[in-house]
Structures are given as structure tokens and as C-alpha cells.
Amino acid sequence: MLTLKVIAQDTEKVIKGLEKKHFKNAKEVVDKVLAHDKERRAAQSELDNILAQNKQLAAQIGKLMKEKNVEEAEKVKAQVAALKETAKELQEKMDTAAADIQQLLYTIPNLPYDEVPEGATAEDNVVEKTGGTETVLPENALPHWELAKKYDLIDFDLGVKITGAGFPVYKGKGAQLQRALINFFLDEARKAGYVEIMPPTVVNAASGYGTGQLPDKEGQMYHCDLDDLYLIPTAEVPVTNIYRDVILDEKQLPIKNCAYTQCFRREAGSYGKDVRGLNRLHEFSKVEIVRIDTPEHSKESHKEMLEHVEGLLQKLELPYRILRLCGGDMSFTAALCFDFEVYSEAQQRWLEVSSVSNFDNYQANRLKCRYRTADKKTELCHTLNGSALALPRIVAALLENNQTPEGIRIPKALVPYCGFEIID
Fold it and tell me: How far is CA 268 from the centre of its chain?
């Protein structure tokens, strides 16, 4: 979340940044934060004066008791008691103001960097780069859901029977392809210096608040009511929360972690042709890369992460493009985000497969994730993460773009992981 210091010192800049993210009632919310802070500081000042008075009166009581002036001492004790009641009321006022500030800060998104384009929707995102292998499909090319049925790779109906829509069952070479991709992505991450983590796929509320998934206003997370636990929407949540309430040494940074997990998203409100097949699921596999870094180096880390994801798509021989997201299309927590999309020749559309984000110190402030500098000062870290990669749409693009009259060709980089060169 934003620090109170930033809001107080750069109020106009904060409001402009929030408006760039199309955050409703930006000025009104910021003004509320500042008003509560003014109340808190006024109560703190009054409380400090009372505590100082109490200290003086306590010394006065001691002196009066030594002088055997019991009656006067009792009068002073009555004053102390009254001041203690006032102090209690002021403390409650401070606590209430602090809680109100905290709740408001949880609702305020991160500020976008200056290089984030203006814009309200995905239509306003900027194409930074295109690349990859162009594909020419045979006549009557099929979409992946038809290919999955033809080659008995994925059973969507069976998933509906077992669980519901959006929970497919992978079979035979379809399951092998999933496992191949997971291992390929993890091996590539390890080669790039990422330390693999195998985290829980269920987290507590503190973890959800730490990375900004909570409060979940859209109700997109699956919640286990009885235990007050949440199914993770991405490995970002448990992996980044490893560093909650931790003070790192500057020499440890950047920390580079990767993790494969199942991910769970309710995808409430998603309907229509764009959700067919693997395009939008409630449960899917993903490899995530996470970095904890210093403010001075985080932009370089972001660049390295983008290069890593681009390298994966190049090795998978897929046509891709990189988008710089506009303010209105960025996530709640991101300060700068790039999306990677692969082109589906059979569907004639772009499919998002990765978002690589720099969160500045927004998550770190929520997490209390800090580092100690060489001169022993304690500073907030920067956090970054990205999909490297999410599997469903990668699988969709691989099936569709590599279909031939003989079967579905497997990219060379995946053959050692699959154990076969073609699905026929």
C-alpha cells in the first residue's frame, strides 16, 4: 500500500497518479486519509501533553507525601485519575483513526510510473514489440478444444462431471505435455538463477493482504469459510509472503525465486466465446518468478524478467507480442506492467500468457518487507513477479499453431521433456 508519508508530502502527485489508474473518487479518498491522520496527530499531541503532566504530578505527589501533606496529595491523585481517563479516551481516538487510515490505504491502488501510458482499457495498451515464429496452418484448421477432442488430450466434459466448468481433465499426451511444460519452465528458471520453492496452495488472510489480493472486492478468490483460508490465484502470494515481516541484508538482494503451483480463480462475470476451451479456467498450472530487490536495481530486474519470458516464447517457437499496459488496464498493485500475448492462428486472436510487474514498494509496505543498507538504515524493498509461464493458453497456442495433416508437432525445446515429437 502507499505510505502515509508519500500521501502527505506529495498529495497532488498521488491524486494525479490515482486518476491515471482510473481510481474513482481519488481526491475524496486521499482527503479522508489526511483528515484521519490530522485527527490522529492532534490526539497524539494532546496525549503527549497529558503524559508529561502526569509525570510532573506524580513527582508532586511524592513530594507532598514526604511532607506529610496527605490531603493535598489526595487532590493531586484525583487530578492524575482524571487525566488518565482523558488519556484513555485519546488513545482510543488515536487507535480508531489509525484503523480508519489502514482500511482506507488497503483500498487505494499503487501509483503508476511516469512511463505508464494514459488510457482506460486494454484498447489503450501500447504494443512494444512483436516476435516469434509465424505460422501457416492447413485448410480447415481446428481450435484447440476440437484438437483436444480429436487426439483425446483434454476432456472438458469429464471436468464438468467431476467438478464443474473450467476444471478440465488432461489425459495421455495432453497430461504429458502439461508436465513437460512445467519441467521446461522450471529448468529454464533454474538456469537463470531462480531458486525453486514449493509453497502451499492455500494461504491465510494475512498473506492475501500482504500481496494485495485482499480485500477481494470482486470476489475472485476461492474462500474456505470454515478455516478462513484462500486458494491461491498465483504463486506470487505464498512466495512473496515468505518475506513478510522480514529484514533482509542488502547483500542478499536481489532474491530470485520461482515456483510451480496450481492456481485457482473464480473468474466471476466471464462469459461468451472468449472462455471456450483453455482460454479461461478456474484451475490451471503456472510457473511464477518472483524477485525481491533494492529500489535502485528493481528496474534492471524487471528488464531481466521480461527478457526471460520472451526467451521462453522464442524457444517454444510461438508468435508473440509484448504490451505496455496503460493506467486503466493495470492491476491494483502494479506500478509498471508488461503483458505477453501469443497469437492463436486457429482462433485468429491474441491470448495473454504472462504479466510481468514491478510493484515498487507497494507490496513491501503491506508485507513490512525491508532490507538493511550498508550504513545500517532500514528501507522498504521492491517486489516484482511474472508468469513464466501460465500453461492453459500456451497449450492452446501450441496445439493450434503446430497442427499439421500428420498431427500436432512438438517444438524442439520440448521434445526431450515430452518424449515424443508429434501428437498423432
Answer: 18
